[in-house]
Predict the 3D structure of the following.
Amino acid sequence: MSLGVPIIDLDVRPSGPEREPPSLRLRLTPPRWALAVSVVLLALATLGTAASPGRRISHLLSAGGQPAAAFVLSNDSLFTASFGGNPNSESAVRRWGLPDGALRWAAAVPQNVQNLEYDGVAHVLMGRSGAEPQVIFLDADTGAVLWRDTSPNTTVVTLADGKALIRTDIGEHAWTVRLVDARTGRQVWSRVIDGTGFFDIDDQYGRPPTRLITVGAGGHAVVPRYADGLVLAEGDLQVEIPMQLDNAFGADYAAISTAGDTMYVSRRESGATTLTAWSIGSLTRRWQVAGGPAGFVVDCGSVLCLADNGLVSALDPADGRVLWQREQLAFAYAFDDRSLLAYDQSPDPRAMLLEPGTGAVLLHLGSVVDLRGVLLRADLVRLGRTWVQVPGGDGGLHVVGELDTAAPFGCESQGSYLACPTTAGPTQVWLIPAHLT
């Protein structure tokens, strides 16, 4: 089995956006070649400006000679899992060092692995099987097996900050939630919760989890602390959550979402809507708006984004007042300090950047995948090529290179690294410029 991993050099000059388009003479009836060139020009204009030479992605690694069943990036490594001789019962897990691309270790594990997660605090790599509840925890530094869990009806909810949160279904409406040490499996705390309503972890990207938010079907909320399970707040949200949520247009439903230190309960009943904001820390009501839009709330920085049935509304976080609305959008969220990223409802969703205060369109992006600020765009002209864009210090988007892969939806980024599956097989890794001006 081949263990090589492809690597991309950031100093390679991408060909597309650097070319000077041929000049076009004004004609009443443009020839076909002119129409083709106009399509290319439109695509390049949407891509954004090209970065200067030396500020481009670098190909670092091609990992193995076959497609990975799963892979995950850390700040200094790529971990891959591939099926063994019996794909249903064994896998080979490998660690590749970055940026050198060297194979650090390879380990055979006695189960298939179709999902990998990494915790940098405990240096633990977790592998999950596809259809069966088999989870294995490896020492990320050596590949040694630390412990396994094959309990039925069990799911690892999160692996973070040296701990794993594990949920086990113990009845039709009840769950046992337990926090264990990621390296040993030793239980830290456990509690039974109502699993019929809402369950969330306060784990904003880049920060360790601090608390859990649980709401039963009758609206009773409990907020345990993540570290030790101590109940921080408990109360009644004055809402009943349907056993079967039906979010069809006009149907009655209750939707719960969290943003920052606030929980939002959106209710539609017999055509009447309410949106209520609750403090997560104390479970006291902050404000309630009746008759406005309903749906799931997302933290969009200076505004709240609420999406429902093709309508995105921007709300004032202080009182829920509607600031602006845009139709035919599926959802929106904060892209950076200056813009929101929104997707439309087309079969091949198209993205755009919006101004948070007004909803005005700043830039049409087309079909892109957002990886924590790194945008991947499929080429409109040459199938199998994907352009890479990153924000610059000037507020613009810059093309920093191209990938010979048509599978951007399987990519992920971590720190300065980008990893993607390829149609040829090996998982590839590139280095991304840290900052553009």
The chain has one helix and 38 strands. The longest strand covers residues 174-181.
